[in-house]
Amino acid sequence: MTATPDDTLAAAPECVPARMLNEFVYCPRLAYIEWVQGDFVASYETVDGAYRHRVVDDARGSLPEQVSEDETIHASSVWLSAPDEHLSAKIDLVEGQGGKVTPIDYKRSAPPDGGDGVWDTDRAQLCAQAIVLRANGYECTEGLVYYCSTKQRVTVAFTEQVVAWTRTAVDELRIMATGGEMPPPLLDSAKCVRCSLVGVCLPDEVNLLTGRGQTDEEGIRRLLPARDDALPLYVQQQGARVSKRGEVFEVWADGARRAESRVFETSQIALFGNVQVTTQALATALDHGIPVVFFSSGGWFRGVAGGLGHKNAELRLAQFGVALDEEASLGLARQFVRAKITNSRTILRRNAQTPPRDTLDELGSLARRAESSASAEELLGIEGRAGRIYYGVFTKLFKGRTDGTFVFDFRGRNRRPPLDPVNALLSYAYSLLAKDLAVTAAAVGLDPFVGFYHRPRYGRPALALDLMEEFRPIVADSVVLSLINNGALGGGDFVRRGPAVALTQPGRRRFIAGYEQRLDTLVTHPLFGYRVSYRRIFEVQTRLLARHLTGELAAYPGFTTR
Question: Which CATH number fits domain 313-549: 1.20.120.140, 1.20.120.920, 3.40.50.1220, 3.40.50.1820?
Answer without folding.
Answer: 1.20.120.920
